[in-house]
Amino acid sequence: MNKFITINLNQSETKEARIEVWRDRVRWSMFGIIVILLLGSNIGVWMIGHGYRALIDQKKSEIALVKEDINNLRKKGKNLSKDDIIALADLERNRYLWARYLELLGEMTPEDMAITGLKYRNNKMIIEGIGVIYQDEQQKFGIVYNFINTLKNNREFSNNFSRIKFDQGSRKQVRGQDIYEFRIEAKLKPGGGKPKSS
Question: What is the pLDDT of residues 140-149, one digit of tens each?
């Protein structure tokens, strides 16, 4: 009797074959994900580079416009001579900023004294003021000399003056109160320049 081998073609896959198919699908899925990620990162890098190229082109065009403006201004502008530059330097070196002097003068003036006038004449600042006399004849000179010493001791104020001195004064009575009118002369140093901060 003949022995035949029967094969059932309708039989489902074996367990090992199913596992192998599943592993194959996982490998292809991972490969696909990696390819998509690499492709996405390359596209992102290309877009960033394109953005930077556009920004660089924009900046180059702005620089070209600025250079063109500078050249136009140079063509229109007046060239400064050496004498103009030296004159400007002399003006800067020899100018006085009076606002700071006046501010310091106000800060140093005692409460029982008032500045009534300021004049500038012949390289001298003339300070006129009045002070209250409370007691004796000697005090009228004391309040003025104390004020002069205060001015001399303030380096920021006195730095550009060669001398600060009492010029003249007189005693008066206003509404029953003794006052002393005085004048102080502060001579500027030649080429003293701007007030310097202490």
Answer: 567 888 888 9
